[in-house]
Amino acid sequence: MCIRDRRFPVLLNVIKSVWEPRKSLILTYFLMVILIYIFALFGYYIFSDYYTEGYCDDTFTCFLTTLDQSFKADGGIGGHLAPADEKEIYIIQEGQLTTDTALEQK
Prior knowledge:
Layout: H1 2-7, H2 9-19, H3 22-47, H4 59-69, H5 89-102
């Protein structure tokens, strides 16, 4: 191990920086998954009719779609919403704004 320590000290520091706080990182990941699940339930019960066909048929599929699309650069989960009538567009835009802003990464 000491040969690797001298040869790649920067790599060792990177590994230590991830390995030492592993419990905090794992708990943070689980918190993120729980919050995304709550957003998926919100999306399923309110916007399931507006999702593209096959992306929100049940809560688990809606959760996987939300987990997958939330952090992509194509506009978040709103990219999977189908176009709506003019009467319903304001409801969808308010919900999309709320979910995309809450899940926005900075």
